Structures are given as structure tokens and as C-alpha cells.
Amino acid sequence: MTKLKVTVFPKAGVLDPQGKAIERALGNLGFAGVGEVRVGKVMVVEVNEADPARAKALGEEMARRLLANTVIESFTVEAA
Amino acid sequence: MTKLKVTVFPKAGVLDPQGKAIERALGNLGFAGVGEVRVGKVMVVEVNEADPARAKALGEEMARRLLANTVIESFTVEAA
Predict the structure, then answer these.
(1) In this prediction, what percent of chain A has a pLDDT beyond 70?
(2) Could you confirm whether the keyword Amino-acid biosynthesis appears in this record (chains A, B) (predicted)?
(3) Fewer CB within 10 A of the end CB, N or C, for chain B?
(4) What's the total number of domains in chain A?
């Protein structure tokens, strides 16, 4: 089995309300000098594919079809 | 400014219903040979701290106090 790490973030320019909320909360907790916060998802997926290139391609297809909303999100796939 | 990447995952043994749901959905989409799927959060936080070690310590404190529920989640902090 190969472990893939699929990381999904909102595309640049897409509003990130979670990030904004965390920025404010960190400030309220007394953390000074906090800049932008961006929040994404990360998924570790075990696939029954030993070849790294084919496993990565499989992960990219999973991301395109399910794990990411490619209209507003971008993703990366790497070996975990 | 330094960019930190804080990654948060459920601790081993903690139920991951999102992961289970994604496993099933990938199977339903025809992806054969999918093993375990674990889902976590990833946050990129800009901090006004140039020293890498101090920035990392700051990120760890942010994770302990806000970004992770350390009862059921574990986290890592690295330079983004």
C-alpha cells in the first residue's frame, strides 16, 4: 500500500471565513503580530498501488472527483 | 513575517467518521483498493517573528491553546 497526502486549500481570492475567525481568535488570546491565516484540509489516503507515479495520478483523480471542489479549491498530492 | 504550517490530525484510536465516509465514497466512485483514509486540518499562519525557532514555538503555543483540541488531536508545526 502507498500512503498519499492530499492537501486542499481555498484558491487565492476565495474568501476564507475560517481563516479570518482564527486570526481574530488568536488576537483575542493575546497573540500579537498574527498576519493572514489560511485553513485547508489534509487527507492521508492509503492506495493499493506500489508505483509512486501511478499512485500520485490516482490521488490526483480522487482529488478532482471527490476530495476537492476544484471550482474554489486547489490541491496538491504527495507521498505521505 | 514567517509562515508556519500547522497540521492537526485526530489521535490514533480516535474515530474518524469523515475518513470513513470518504473511504466509502471513493469506493462508490469505483476507486478499488482504497485503504484507510484519515482527515485533518492544515493551517498556514503568518507570524511577525523572524527567528525560526521562536516562530515554531509560537505556532506550537497557538496549536495548544486554539488550533488543536489536544485531548483528541495531535499537531505538527513546520515552516510553510
Answers:
(1) 100
(2) no
(3) N
(4) 1
